Every structure is written in structure tokens, then in C-alpha cells.
Amino acid sequence: MLWSTHGSAVSTRSFIGWEFGWGHGNENFFWFWLKNTGLFIPLLLIALLWKREDYLVSRKLMLFYLPFTLCFIIPNVLKLAPWIWDNIKVLYYWWIASAPIVALLLARLWESNAWKRALAAILFVVLTLAGGLDVFALLTQQGEYQEFDRDGVNFAEMIKQKTPPRSTVLHAPIHNTPVFLTGRRSIIGYPGHIWTHGIDFGSREADVKKIYSGSLDAADLLSKYGVDYVVIDPQEHSVMPVNDAFFSHYPEVATIGAYHLYKIKP
After folding, report:
1. pLDDT at residue 202, rounded to an integer
2. End-to-end alpha-carbon separation of the chain, Å?
3. Which residues contact 100 (CB under 8 A, 6 or more apart)?
4. Which residues in 68-93 are b (16+ Cβ under 10 Å) and which e?
5. Which of 12, 63, 111, 173 is 20 to 30 Å from 4 at the Cα level?
6. Could you report the per-residue pLDDT of 84-140, keeping only the tens digit for each?
7. pLDDT below 70 — which residues of the chain?
8. Three-state helix/strand/coil letters over the chain
């Protein structure tokens, strides 16, 4: 990681740090995990310790599984990314290795007498109900999310027609600007995503706001960042002050509805 981020805007110090309990916040650590995984961890422990004539989990399977426990322990002790939630990318491997062991326990119960079979069925429902409700909500949802409106999509096509492929286009720091449909380079993307990669974007975001406000050093900042084109549309107006009079001095090369593209470099 040190090699890949050397000389970049990424702050490596934001990736590693002590963070006990993943994202438990002010909640008790054990209650946090019980609330979020239900009976999964208790059943996992029962499966690992179950012994009659022999252990339910064989020695060979146990040796295979043990390294995966580190994928649970380490994310509960260390922060592995600027956003603590991203520790889940490591926790998934623990869960993937643990799920078959819990399933083995349920299968063993199912193969026993009637009351144990009923218990296995109840446990199966309890373990899958929360996820099933999530899937049901998604499948039955009547509304839909719209990332780009019709004018935005058409505006993106116009940008591709009017600008060279490696042009740098200035736009609002949001997640759904039409510029992202064009393949053109941006000055800054969506801060809500950038910070999770440890990128220090604060000064650049401030400079973008200065440019759009038409500040005294706006022209110098446009030159500093090598901006070829500037987009002004409802999104820019919604997230920051925009000085339309300042940009009226530049040629407008494309417009669709409320979407406007200004050429900065001659």
C-alpha cells in the first residue's frame, strides 16, 4: 500500500489504526454482534465444540477454518480503511467460511429425531428471515431511483461530441453528474466516496467552490487545474453558489435545457 500510494493524494495514515469492536459505537461489543448476527455466532460456537462420539467439525476441517477466524478478529481490533465500515470486506471471508459450519450443524439436527428436526427448521428461518425481508422489500418496491434525467443523458452525449476524449471537465462534486457518462477527466469526484479511499480532497474542493463563485483567483485556479470545460447545471446550483455572470465571458459550446457547457481554453 505504501508503494502504490507514494506521491499520491492518499493519506496512508488513515488506513490503519486501533479500533476495537468494528462499528459498535457506544453499544456493548457482545450485544452489537448478537444484534447484527442473531444466533449465527452462538450456533457457530456450538458447531465447533459439539462432541458426542466425535466432534461435529473434523480436525481437518477445523485446521482449514482456523485461519479464517483472523478475518473476524483483526477487523474487530484494527481499522483497515479510512471508513471503518469497509472492514466488512475482510469480515466477509470469515462469514463465508463460517456459514457452511453452521449449515452442517442444522443438517445434523435435521437428521435426528422429530423435535430436533423442528428445531433445525426454526433455526433456519431465524437465520435467514432478516435477509429474506430485505430481498422481499427490494423485489416489491414500487418506486425506483433515478441517477440521470433525460436531459442529463442527452447532455452527456453532447459533451462526448463537442470535447476531445482526454478533456478535463469541471463539475459539481456529486455522485451523479452527467460528466461521469462521458469518460472525460474530472477535477474532483464525489467526496462521500473519495474520503473512503484516504484521499485528501479538502483544498481541491475549496478551490472548485472558489471557481464557481467567480472569486478573484478563479481564472488562475482554472489554469492551475488545467480545466478545458466547465459544466453548469441544476446540480452545481444545488450544492454551491454559482456566478453565472463570470462564466458568461466564456463561449458556451453546448446546452440542453438547464445544462450548459462552457469552453475555458481557447
Report:
1. 86
2. 40
3. none
4. eeebbeebbebbbbbbbebbeebbee
5. 173
6. 999 999 999 999 999 999 999 999 999 988 999 999 999 999 999 988 888 888 888
7. 1-14, 53, 142-143
8. CHHHHCCCCECHHHCCEECCCCCCCCCCHHHHHHHHHCCHHHHHHHHHHCECCCECCCHHHHHHHHHHHHHHHHHHCEECCCCHHHHHHHHHHHHHHHHHHHHHHHHHHHCCCHHHHHHHHHHHHHHHHHHHHHHHHHHHCCCCCCCCCHHHHHHHHHHHHHCCCCCEEECCCCCCCHHHHCCCEECCCCHHHHHHHCECCHHHHHHHHHHHHCCCCHHHHHHHCCCCEEEECHHHHHHCCCCHHHHCCCCEEEEECCEEEEECCC
pLDDT at residue number 196: 85
**Listed residue (101, 40, 104, 38) closest to 68, CA to CA:** 101
Give the residue carrying C-alpha cell 459550446: 253
Q: Please choose, from the candidates 265, 62, 61, 55, the residue with its C-alpha nearest in 3D space to the C-alpha of residue 168.
A: 265
The CA distance from 189 to 9, in Å, is 13
Q: Is the CB of residue 22 less than 8 Å from the CB of residue 95?
A: no
| Per-residue pLDDT reduced to its tens digit, 131-154 | 888 888 888 876 677 899 999 999
* β partners of residue 170: 230
Cβ-count burial of 13 within 10 angstroms (0-12 exposed, 13-18 middle, 19+ buried)?
exposed
pTM: 0.77
